[in-house]
Fold:
Amino acid sequence: MSEDHIWQTMIQTGELGHHQVHFFPCTASTNDLALALCNTGAPDATLIVADSQSAGRGRLAGRTWHSPPGTGLYFSLILRPRLAPADFPKLTLAAGLALCKGLESQTQCQPGLKWPNDLFLHGKKCGGILTETQGLAGAGQTAVVIGIGLNVNTPAEAFSEELRAKATSLSATTGDLYDRTLLLAAILAELDLAVARLEQGDFPAILAEWRQRDIHAGQQVSWVNTQGRIVTGISLGPDEEGFLHIRDGQGLVHSVISGDISLAQK
Structure:
């Protein structure tokens, strides 16, 4: 599918709406570029977009993101939100909600969210979010980078046999092709709104909307705790701080700050 006029205009002008855009045909990781740009005075709302990534990263160590050219959205947004550092983890949940709402506005898809940062369609992962921070030396200010990878027009055969069982794209799910620029613009608009809502203290409402899309709510899930023990229990969803809670078989509620959550084997 040939690129549309707006995509080409974004590349040529370095702008998309009020966002200054750094576009790369291929890069290792848009988040790495964004973190580097944070320390060179890149303004708030700067956007780094790549047509493909050679070393896209997931949230957990050793995880990679499959980023073939011409088919997906791979971008990172630089923010300096008016938030206390303790509230930064909420940005990941807010970004997940923004990603869902952006897609819902442009497609017939009804994506779900897996805590804390994955987007799912029909039981398969379709997108992911990686939020990282970069302190500015001597400035007393912290920049936040929100990286998003989304499988848009990636055909099913482009995934390895192993990935095909657990990953999908919008196109592979629906059979339709999508305009990447329209999706990007819609997601950015929702991201801008979500960050503004967070800054205004509206996280409870954001959380309520996130929970409506929680694919693990009330499900039996497994989690490896900090001692390396597998905890199995019912997912109670994230709390007002964004931490997940799991109630095990003995009724003990575990607070999950980080880690990988999966459906328990039946």
User: Anything to note?
Assistant: The mean pLDDT is 89. The helical segments are 5-13, 30-38, 89-106, 161-164, 170-174, 180-199, 203-211. The CA atoms of residues 63 and 150 lie 15 Å apart. The two ends are 42 Å apart (CA to CA).
